Amino acid sequence: MERMAGKGYRSLADQLRAWSDQQLSRLLLARPDLATPAPQDSGQLASRSATRASITRALDQLSRVELCVLDALVVAGQTTPAELVPMVHAQPSSVERALARLLETALAWESTGGLRALTGVAELLVGGPTAGASGLKPRSAEPLTVPEVESRLAEISPEARVLLEHVLDHGGEATTDSSRHTVSPADARTPAEELLSRRLLVPRGGGTVVLPGEVGLVLRGGRTTLEPVDELPEVPTSARDQSLVDKVAAGAAFEVVRRVELLLDHWGTVPPSVLRSGGLAVRDLKAAATLLQVDERTTALVVEVAHAAGLLAVGTGPDGDPAWLPTDELDRWVTRDAAERWEVLARAWLDSPRLPALVGQKDPAGKTWNALVPELTGVHQVETRRLTLDVVGSLPAGGVLATGTGVPGVVARVAWLRPRRPRTRSDQVLWALEEASVLGVTGLGGLASFARPLLAGEDAAPLLDPLLPAPVDHVLVQADLTAVAPGPLESTLARRLQVLADVESRGGATVYRFTPGSVRRALDLGWTAVEVHDFLGSVSRTPVPQPLTYLVDDTARTFGSVRVGHAEAFLRADDESALTEILHHPQARTLGLRRLAPTVLVSDTPIDVLLPRLRELGAAPVVEAPDGTVRVAGPDQLRARVPRERRPAGARVARETAGVAAVVTAVRAGDAAAASRPADAPSLTPSGSLAALREAVERGSSVVIGYVDNHGSRSDRVVDPLSVEGGRLTARDHRADDTRVFAVHRITSVRAVG
Amino acid sequence: MTDGPLIVQSDKTLLLEIDHDRAAECRKAIAPFAELERSPEHVHTYRLTPLGLWNARAAGHDAEQVVDTLLEFSRYAVPHSLLVDVAETMARYGRLRLEKHPTHGLTLVSNDRPVLEEVLRAKKVAGMLGNRIDDDTVAVHPSERGNLKQALLKLGWPAEDFAGYVDGEAHPIDLVQDEWQLRDYQRDAAESFWHGGSGVVVLPCGAGKTLVGAAAMAHARATTLILVTNTVSARQWKDELVRRTSLTEDEIGEYSGAVKEIRPVTIATYQVLTMKRKGVYPHLELLDARDWGLIIYDEVHLLPAPIFRMTADLQARRRIGLTATLVREDGREGDVFSLIGPKRYDAPWKDIESQGWIAPADCVEVRVTLPEGERLVYATAEPEERYRLASCTHRKIDVVKSLMARHAGQPTLVIGQYIEQLDELAEALGAPVIKGETSVKERQRLFEAFRSGEERTLVVSKVANFSIDLPDAEVAIQVSGSFGSRQEEAQRLGRLLRPGTASDDGQAKVARFYTVVSRDTVDADFAQNRQRFLAEQGYAYRIVDAEDVSTL
């Protein structure tokens, strides 16, 4: 960086123009909002960087010491680094580092008169001392010197001194009622007048007085704050073996992979429906929690992570309604190693702005948050999560967050790193820590060693893999009709076993229970008893106990003893030969008749077709009602339904006419607006005029604007722009000699004076 | 990842692989805090429950030991939430203590004030507590000692009882070990009870729980009240005590429906105590009739609810519960914990079997097919009739006969639920039947005859489920039971497990336990439920069809 090379720049735009590509790209990386959409030129870039929204975003990214330095810069007005550094109560090196960052992010720039903060910064630096705002006002245009201030302070009465310090501690601004604003020190009757007379308080119109920055600085011993601002809060730790941390984290990692698979497998067959709000119903979440044997909070996290990883999406359920379904990505995902699967989930979580921890709580409107609703996101979530993990990751080796005090320590540290974050930040830190431990990114309050590459964007799976239980290919079958897989079963094996037995307990191992129902389920899917025996024999490392063999045979014995089929109609006759006659009639072939019993035939033909055909064949059938009585009916009279959508023709015509009229009105109004625009005004693009105005704000120069007032008449005015915000230009109007607010959209042209 | 024998599941079950080298070591280490739930042949299942963890605390184990044990033996990573849960649960025990204050009497003391405040505000304990003595101490009405403990357990803050016990009226009792010796586990059980103050001893049927009771009495050397399930059981306790201790018959009283004696050692039945007349329990005064130094509860798992209420008033007396299983069909294990005391001793059935103290058992389920006609009747019967119909099929009589033929000469019990079925069986087998209406005298005569070998077969109803001592029963055939009661199944098997004398060919006694059920009916379903308990105790069933009985 060319620090103060030469005499500085006329404007921020000039400075940016002079910057190297590298510097520019660093700026755009630090403040990505400046880059979209791509600015036309440096002027527009400078203009955009001075907008309130963009400054707020940039300020939010600053640490406490950086904010304090910026605050000092605002207090100082135009200054040099040499003057600025001692004003901040911190190590000079950290002040210089902070200043470099401020310049890099274009929150401060080097004007011809010295270092300056962007104009908009002053009013956005709020939030009290913790957010870096010292509460000092900027120095006055012609500041008193330090000895002057000191000598005047020595003159005043103790009451005045107390008053002055009170004003200093409460924002540096006060109102006076009866005090005269212009009075000499000798005439001063009240403490306020004493201060006003000595310019220790300065009137600012409207009965307001301010305490000038230079006075505040002296009162605070030459620095903007009394407390040092670069002391990083300590995070209390306790000693824990890294291998133990890894072990616990790997346990959690394995669990979360297992749970996602279990849940999505289940939802693949019984998908929960999508709420109209786009979320997951509370009932479905509860059911999922029961399935996963965890609380609803953890379930919400599992669901959200699966969604973030692209394993869960809205699809069409079996009944045609929108439903939460596993995606085809799941099929790829399940074939991978557990460690790789975990990495997919963890990475998705890391970059997800979702707030699963809010699920089940009430939103400000008193409505309960559902999982998966689109609104359940937080803009700061990703960053807070990263910061939190960075803090945990920066703990000394062998140290983990101390029980009880560790978490508040992290909250304090994150608060120091990003003081301007919203009030919900401490919650977000807590959530991040909680979620990290559930996902196995941390364990026992320490960052798992296999999660470090994850944070660095590298492959984490190879480090995790050896920590996960190795897949097993056998089970232990026992006489109480359970089978225990003493580790995660190989995927295909697990799927087959799940058909044959119900899962009773999950975890590192899985306990399966064989029941008549579960064996029947396998038979339903086409297994034969022999296949079941062979399968059990091959997966069981111990002899298959006799009761299980018996159970399989017994279930197979009763399997299929009742047959169910489909038929449209039945024919019943006590006279077997009558049915035989119909069945063998040459023309009856197309009726799809089958004999179930000597006295019963069934037919695939619907009864209304069957009946006339049978009559044609010479039989004399009657229709039987469900209760066995004979039903006799004549042919039905057919009727159509009255169409529902029929309205009187007059109403439709009236509606159409009204619509056309509205469009015509709009077009006429647009024409009128175009006609009232003077032809000679230099056409400026909206962004061009904004850029020109902002540049004027920064430079503090005057411009001539063409303005259309409330009555539609156009005039040229000479103004000193003060700020451009929210579609309004605040400027000192030379003609009115007062501060006026102009609507930016009414400004037709912006020209430099002269 | 270590190669431990234990797998800790996230649902708080622990799976112990028995064939592992370190399995025995691990079992010893986890037994104090984990409840053995199932012990089939390869993998035993333990469960971590709050009660189990508090039992461990009561026995002097702390959370760190538990966590270390889990981590040491676990094959895979232990879910962190589970460890936290263990620590938190165990930390809840003993925050509140019942203590004896020199001036204020019984007090509830806490060193964790928020807990005390929380408890004081709970509706459940309102009225049990007296004045606040200081910030950490509250007076307790002495009569509410038991109720308070019960309520605190329900609130999740079980109190540790340091208030001590009354000594009771001294009475010399000694074990007379002339021709027999107390077995090691019986001695251990009695001692760990005595050191713990009060509590429950869990031993399998036939493992000699009566002797544990006698040993406890010898420790207490004070007047003792023994509560048993029924009169027959009361007589057996009496006989056993006369035989094994220095007590004479005159020192032992029976307090039952027939006799009401109060002596230094009094044996009362649950039934007489819980008998209610005009809304009051007329025999309740028995509990205060003497200054009892020890109260023995036989078959704690059957303790009826009114006895729990009475026990709540007996917290100053030492209490020992004896049972084969803490499983209660009504799920009141928590009341047993808070009112009688934590589990003080537990030994798996199979362990005692391997030491030779109980006989190994061979369990077989025989399935009969209902004849066509009965099937039709069954299919159309009302649901409440179905079980009886299925249980009482005549096909079972043939099976029982052929089973009896296989074990001709061996002492055999035929056990059933339905009297008419039993009568029918008795007639078919030519054997006497014992049922509810059989007089006590007649019962004792028949038992004596069975013991002496005069009768080789007895047909018994459920009156014989409990505490009848039939040392020579080797074969049991159950033809029906009270629905799916696991309890009953365990008791019935227990009837066979007393170690017998070796047979002529030198083979040790093997108990034979047959269950005859009707295929494809609710009978089979209930049988499956009952057997699960035994299968989980490691007694595997074989299932055979009635037609194949001859090939057994």
Automatic annotation (TrEMBL), chain A:
Residues of the WYL domain: 690-751
Q: Which residues form the Helicase XPB/Ssl2 N-terminal domain?
A: 475-597
Under InterPro entries, the record lists: WYL_dom, XPB/Ssl2_N
Protein name as catalogued: Unannotated protein
Automatic annotation (TrEMBL), chain B:
Q: Which reaction does it catalyse?
A: Couples ATP hydrolysis with the unwinding of duplex DNA by translocating in the 3'-5' direction; ATP + H2O = ADP + phosphate + H(+)
Key word Ribonucleoprotein present: no
Q: Which residues form a coiled coil?
A: none
From the UniProt annotation, give the residues forming the signal peptide: none
Q: Where is the Helicase ATP-binding domain?
A: 190-344
The EC number(s) attached to this protein equal 5.6.2.4
MF term (GO), any: 3'-5' DNA helicase activity
**Any keyword Nucleotide-binding?**
yes
Provide the Helicase C-terminal domain boundaries.
398-550
Q: Which UniProt keywords apply?
A: ATP-binding, Helicase, Hydrolase, Isomerase, Nucleotide-binding
| Similarity-based family | Belongs to the helicase family. RAD25/XPB subfamily.
Q: What is this protein called?
A: DNA 3'-5' helicase
